[in-house]
């Protein structure tokens, strides 16, 4: 069967049966386009059902020679394996040639984490006399207090703040709602920001959005990235800092403080506990460093 035809059918499967987002589908299809490019390059004819394990091994050698990182190679391998599982399920193939394929070894890439002191330094660099000062301080306090994704932050609604209960309603991946505890300090900064927000000329459709730009519209992801990058620079922090760094710091500080991993999973909105388990590794690293630093036998 021609590869392009199978890819089209696979796209429908990912959308209708798996219910994946357009972004996720595009990532899967991009991996398959690379396989198509390889077939042209290697002058291999026939559809995916004709490819052998050896030829697919050549494909991954070719990917490696393109200079892609080990992480990118591993992601492509995962995408190709998922495609062949689909072919097996649809009876296009009788045997999966990707079963024995192994990707490059990946080192455990730990996310950058800010200390509480570094977060405070960033907050202290905010000029509250500037029009966006109160907004930026409330925004960072909310990011750290709740461990939000940047898309969740920019979509926060005023109607989703439950002050008395100490929760905010968050719209996460796949439009799934969750309630996340919010600190009294973050609520205080939001309340201090509200008078500035209410002086804006708020555009139709954005009346309930909490954090707005000067034109009265929702912030973009890039705008939040820029604000945080500039504050980290002004605070003299040399780490690569992004909105996601605040999310990682939130989770790490909770686990280091003894929080239950299931509770952290719920607050982060992770579907699988496996995703959250990286923070147990971070916690072990923290404990190891503490022992090396303070145990008499380590001197």
How would you portray this structure in words?
The chain has 299 residues and is mainly α. It has 2 domains: 3-89, Orthogonal Bundle (DNA polymerase, domain 1); 116-292, Orthogonal Bundle (hpI Integrase, Chain A). Helix content is 56%, strand content 4%. The chain is built from 13 helices and 3 strands, in the order H-H-H-H-H-H-H-E-E-E-H-H-H-H-H-H. Strand 2 and strand 3 (177-181) form a beta hairpin. The longest helix is centred in the first third of the chain and has 20 residues, at 22-41. It is elongated and about 65 Å long. The relative contact order is 0.09.
Radius of gyration: 24 Å
CATH homology superfamily name of the largest domain: Intergrase catalytic core
Average pLDDT: 82
Spatial strand sequence of the major β-sheet: 1-2-3
CATH class (first level) name of the largest domain: Mainly Alpha
Name the helix and strand elements from N-terminus to C-terminus, one letter apiece: HHHHHHHEEEHHHHHH
Enumerate the spans where pLDDT stays under 50 for 5 or more consecutive residues: none
Major sheet size, sense and barrel closure: 3 strands, antiparallel
The second-level CATH architecture of the largest domain is Orthogonal Bundle
Attribute tags:
hpI Integrase, Chain A; elongated; single chain; 299 residues; 2 domains; 13 helices
What's the short story on this structure?
The protein contains 13 helices and three strands.
Please specify the SSE layout and strand pairing.
Blueprint: H1 3-17, H2 22-41, H3 53-65, H4 70-89, H5 116-124, H6 133-146, H7 150-154, E1 161-162, E2 167-171, E3 177-181, H8 184-197, H9 221-234, H10 243-256, H11 261-268, H12 273-276, H13 278-294
Antiparallel strand pairs: 1-2, 2-3
Helix pairs in contact: 1-2, 2-4, 6-8, 6-10, 10-13
């Amino acid at each position: 069967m021609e590869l392009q035809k199978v890819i089209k059918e696979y796209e429908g499967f990912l959308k209708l049966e798996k219910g994946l987002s357009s972004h996720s589908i595009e990532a899967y299809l991009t991996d398959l386009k690379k396989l198509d490019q390889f077939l042209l390059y290697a002058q291999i004819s026939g559809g995916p059902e004709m490819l052998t394990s050896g030829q697919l091994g050549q494909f991954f050698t070719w990917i490696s020679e393109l200079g892609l990182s080990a992480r990118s190679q591993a992601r492509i391998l995962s995408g190709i394996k998922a495609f062949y599982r689909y072919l097996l399920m649809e009876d296009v193939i009788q045997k999966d040639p990707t079963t024995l394929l192994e990707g490059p070894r990946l080192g455990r890439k730990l996310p950058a984490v800010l200390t509480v002191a570094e977060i405070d330094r960033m907050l202290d660099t905010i000029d509250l006399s500037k029009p966006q000062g109160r907004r930026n301080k409330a925004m960072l306090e909310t990011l750290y207090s709740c461990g939000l994704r940047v898309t969740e932050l920019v979509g926060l609604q005023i109607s989703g703040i439950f002050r008395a209960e100490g929760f905010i309603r968050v719209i996460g991946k796949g439009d799934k709602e969750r309630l996340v505890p919010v600190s009294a300090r973050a609520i205080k900064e939001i309340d201090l920001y509200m008078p500035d927000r209410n002086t804006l000329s708020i555009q139709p459709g954005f009346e309930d959005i909490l954090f707005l730009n000067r034109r009265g519209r929702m912030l973009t992801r890039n705008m939040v990235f820029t604000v945080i990058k500039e504050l980290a620079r002004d605070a003299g922090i040399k780490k690569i800092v992004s909105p996601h760094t605040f999310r990682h710091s939130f989770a790490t500080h909770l686990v280091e403080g003894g929080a239950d991993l299931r509770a952290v999973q719920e607050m982060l909105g992770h579907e699988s506990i496996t995703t959250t388990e990286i923070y147990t590794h971070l916690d072990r690293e923290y404990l190891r460093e503490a022992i090396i630093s303070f145990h008499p036998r380590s001197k």
